[in-house]
Structures are given as structure tokens and as C-alpha cells.
Amino acid sequence: EAVRRVLLLGEGNFSFAASLCGAAGTYVVATCYESEEEVSGRGRAAESIRRLRERGAEVMFSVDCTKLKDYFFPEKREFDCIYFNFPHCGRKAGVVKNRELLAHFFRSSAEVLTEKGEVHVALCNGQGGTPADQPRREWHNSWQIVAVAAGAGFILSDVHPFKAETIHGYKCTGYRSQDKSFCVEGALNHIFTRSMPLLYFKPMICKIELESQKVSFQVPEVLVDKINRGFLELNSNHPVRTVKETLTAELSQAFPLQNIDYCLSLLHRGHLNGICHSNIFWTILSPEDAPSTEEMSNGLANAVLFSHVDFCRDIDKNGCPNVQEGCHMSKEYYLRPSLLPYAQAIIQRGTFVPGTLHILSGPVFRKCLIAPYCMPVFHEMVFVCAVNRGTENSCIQRMVNNIENSIHSLHQTVSGFKLNINLQEATSFETTELNDFAAFESQLSKIQYFICMEIDASGFCEKGACVGIVRTAHYELVSSELVFVFASLNLDLLAMLICGIPDWRMLWTSDTRFLCQFPRGELRLFKSFSLYPPSYVHDVSFWVPDGEQFDELAFHTIARWVSGEMVISIQLIDSFQQSETGRMSLCYRLTFQSCDKALSRQDVAEMQLLFRKEIKQRLHVTLR
Predict the structure, then answer these.
(1) How far apart, in whole angstroms, are the C-alpha atoms of residue 559 and residue 566?
(2) 418 with 453: CB under 8 angstroms?
(3) Does domain 4-194 correspond to CATH entry 3.20.20.330?
(4) CA 109, chain centre distance (Å)
(5) Span 535-623 CATH architecture
(6) Distances (CA, A) of 508 to 240, 494, 495, 593
(7) Number of other residues whose CB lies within 10 A of the CB of residue 401
(8) CA distance 478 to 550
(9) φ and ψ at 334, to 5 degrees?
(10) What's the pLDDT score for residue 405?
(11) How does 418-454 read in b/e, with b if 16+ C-beta sit within 10 Å?
């Protein structure tokens, strides 16, 4: 078994290092900032140093924690764990100086830490500035440790009390650079791990089969990390697939089933009743010799891609239509916003078996405003059943009962929170009460019922979150005797509610620490591996072009793209109209926060600059 290499920094009297030394499979390198002569005069330091050396540990002096790679040969730089207990610049240094110390320390640690290593930083009560501190200091008066660590690519993955009394022989020292102890009551140990790098969306071409031909299309840049992820494929352990498979198994007890996923294309063409063009991700088909995604990632395709975009400029890189003379949107393709048209097409072709529950599932794509449960892509599951007139209500009840039983069985294995699922008439909801999923479905056709789910302590409104809809339809040209019952479920939202996943973006993370929590697809209560992520606020104000309606949906879509989905909130905080000219000025507040990656102030500042540039260019606003 490999030896675990542990580096300890800033040891005052080496009593902490001595307590760790001797553990099986662990090699300790203990260091301090002062010289051996300075340290040896401290109480018990000489004894601890002697014990360390006797047990085979390496003891180093005059080590600067901000320049760690200078002290180790390249082959000895990789440590599995780095400890820095109660760092301080010394004497009466304030919070700003200590933040700077931590910032340099984290950057230095990144150079000597293994890929899956940990950095442990113990701080006195209140210094860290996280909600784990009780009482919690005001942010500006804390060391802001999570934001500081993010600058070096680290996320806070765990935090727990630093229990000095449980560490054999440990005695803290160094109060104001003296051989004096200090109060460690309420101190916390912060455990940091490496973050996945931030995602920057780049142009991408996707190849698919469409209408019996192989074609390529430009993927809207805001969706490049969400195309062809395979969450519902047979070898997937993703919780979204587990929810789908459990629903399918439960419904098979009540209905004969037919799965028709195999014939569904990502692209659709033609008119969708009630759907505004601006809610859809439009795209254009590329030439037959268009490069693949792999070739795009190698930078070989820009000339081909952009020469084709120049051919018809009615669609931009985020799938926004800019209708110009000579361009007809009815001839263009768009990423499917719903699976309902596919179900309707199967019915109208007459290939439907009455009494059989037909199942369609797959990702759908919809432009939406930035809000906690508004997803530009999610996995939809559609059930369709043809029944005799007069029996549709019985079919609806059977279908919903089986869906409810599936969700209850999944939820009971995950948590003890109380779960309520109910069928509510659509007429009992005001439009403003609908979440994004329900509101969009309401545009497609008339809805009879909403399937609502409510979990105690989930924070949802009294009526619960709408996770599905039920509608009925008649197709006289197909059959005058049959009624078609449709049910549609948002699998992503179901998985989030069942597993306690607070942020839809986490479902799409590429960090393996997400999926490893669901071995073999087994659902469990999700535990975040990025605690208390820092948030940053930026404002932007501008004049709207004269005589134009401001496109807020495009504004939000640009924010999603330039930030890599790091904007979690956009609020209109001020508007002003000049009485003399009638010009309208708007001011929006953007809040940036990641759920799974390190996000630094510098990262956000660059995103904000790019955002200002893009809205000026694409929305023709005049920045203030």
C-alpha cells in the first residue's frame, strides 16, 4: 500500500506534528517558519522535534509557506495532505494581511499537492467567515477563506470543529509571535480539495441522423456541455436514469408498455402551437463535410463553421434568431423543446396500440430566465395512452397512482422527510404560481392537471413544485372513439427533490464526486462537496435602443453563456426614462456563484467584462 505523505506548515512547538507521527502508512514532513535555534527555546519544542526524528519524520526549519516548491525536489513535491494550523502573519496583523498570506499559501500548496490531495486549515472562531462559524463575523471583517482559496482553484469540501483536547500532547503557541497559547475554543478545521477547471464554452459541431440522412449542426454555445451526455443510457448510473427506470418498472405493473425513444431526433422543424420563437434554441445544418466535435476541440474547424454561419446570419452562436430579409425561420431547425410533438406524430400516423402506455424520454431544450429551478435543458418523460371515451379519468388516476408509488418508494430509501404528491386541477393555479416547466407546458396545449410534489423542509411554496402535467386530446381523424391521455414529467426536478440536490447545475457537473455518491444508480441523499461557495455581485446599466423592446430572455441567455452558467440571479434594480428624449435606462444586478467549482473574484471580473461586451454587440445597448 502506498505511503501517505503529509506536510505540516507553521508548526509552533511541533506538538501537533508529534501527535500525527507514527501512524501506520504515513510519512510526516514537519516544518516551521523560524530557525531551529529560535524554535528550540520554546517549551516542549525540543522534545517534540526529538520524537519526530526518532520516528523517521523529516523536520525542516525556515520554510516559507508561500514558496513551498523551492524546498522540495520535483520527485518529492507531491503531498497527499497539507496541514496549516492557525496561520497568522504575526503580531497585530489585520484581516487584509492574513487574507494575503492565505492567498499566497493556497497558490503555493497547489504546486506541491497530489491531484486528489487535501489542504487542512484550522482557524480561530469567526476568522473563516463561513456559516459554520458561530457566531459569524461580518464578511468584510473575516479572512474570507473560501473566496481566497478559490483564487488558487480550491473548494471547501468539509469543515468540522478543531478539538485540541483530543490531540495527544498538543499545545497551541504563538500568540502575537510569542511563546504563549491562545484561545482555540470554537476553532474550525477547513478541508479544501482541488476544483475542476472552469468551463469556457467553445464552438461545437454535433453530428446526428436526421430524416434518414447524416447531418451536422452548430450547437448553441450555452449548451455545449449538455449535448450527448448519455444520462439515460444503459451503462449510466446517473440519478435521472434511476428515476426513469423506477417509474417504468412501476407503470409496467398497471399497463402494457412500449418504449419509443429510439426514433426521436434532437432537432425539430415546423410550427409549435403557442411557443414563441425566442423560447427556442435555433440552429442551422452544416455542410456534409463539417468537422466533428473532436475536430472542433482541436481547433480545425473555425473556418468551416463560421463560413457557414456567414451564409445565413439569422441565428447567432446561442441559438437566438435575428430575422433578416431573405431568411425564413420556418425553414430552420431548432433543438426540441418538448417530446409532445413526437407523441402526436406517432398518433397521427396510426401506429398507436390502444390500451398500451407508450413511453418517450430524452433531453429537451428551452430558453428561460435565470432562476433557481429554471433549466435550459432537462430530461422529459412522456407517457401516452389511448382509451375509450368516458374512461380517461380512470386512466389518469391509475397513471398518477403508479407515478406516486414510484416516487414514494424512491424517496423512502433516501430520506425521512415527509413527501406529498397530489394531482391538482390546472384551474386552481394562477399563471404567476407556475414554475418554468409548468408555464412552458401550458403554452403547448391545454392542461387538465398538474402533478405536484412537496417535501417538508424543501422550501417550496404551499402548493408544492410542479414536476409533471396531465392533458387529454381527441384526434378525430385517427379515431372518434378514443381519447388520448398524455402525462409529462421533469425527471431532473424529480431527482433533485428526491435526493436533496439543491441546484439543477449539479446534475450536469463533470466532477466525479457527484456520480460516485450514486453507486450502481442507487439513490442517496446528496452531500455537497463544495460548501459555502462565495458569491459575487456586479451591476450593469445601459440605455435601451430607441423604439425597441428590450429582449430580457436574450439578456439572460448571454449571461448564461459568458459565465458558463455561473450567474444564479439577475434582478432589475432600477429603471429610468428621460423626459426629454424618452430614452429608457435599465440597471440590472447579477449574482455569480458556482455550485461545484472554484470561482474567484478575478474569474467573475473577466466574465462581467465579457458580458458587457456581448450585450453591447448583440443587443445594441449603450453601456453607461
Answers:
(1) 8
(2) no
(3) no
(4) 26
(5) 2-Layer Sandwich (3.30)
(6) 11, 15, 12, 16
(7) 14
(8) 44
(9) -140, 155
(10) 87
(11) ebebebeebeebeeeebbbbbbbbbebeebbbbbbbb
Integer distance in angstroms from the first to the last C-alpha of the chain?
A: 61
Beta strand 357-365 with 257-259 is parallel
Cα distance between residue 367 and residue 223, in whole Å? 11
Ranges of the chain whose pLDDT falls below 70: 1, 91, 173-181, 262, 273-274, 287-331, 416, 428-434, 442-445, 455-464
Q: What does the alpha-carbon distance between residue 518 and residue 525 come to, in Å, rounded to a whole number? A: 9
Note whether 3 and 36 are within 8 A (CB). no
**Sequence ranges of the domains in the chain:** 4-194, 231-263+337-521, 535-623
Contact assessment for residue 471 and residue 393, using Cβ atoms and an 8 Å cutoff: no
Which DSSP string do the residues of 168-237 spell out, in sequence order? TT-----GGGSS-----TT-EEEEEEEPPPPP-----EEEEEETTEEEEEEPPGGGTTTSS--TTSTT--
Alpha carbons 529 and 278: distance in angstroms, whole number: 36
CA–CA separation, 622 vs 542, rounded Å?
5
Amino acid found at 318: N
**In residues, how long is the chain?**
624
So what's the architecture of 231-263+337-521 in CATH? 2-Layer Sandwich (3.30)
The one-letter amino acid at 529: F
Q: What is the pLDDT of residue 52?
A: 92
Residue with cell 453530428: 207
In 3D, which of 375, 600, 589 has the Cα closest to residue 503? 375
Which secondary-structure segment (H or E) carries 452? strand 449-455
d(CA 389, CA 33): 83
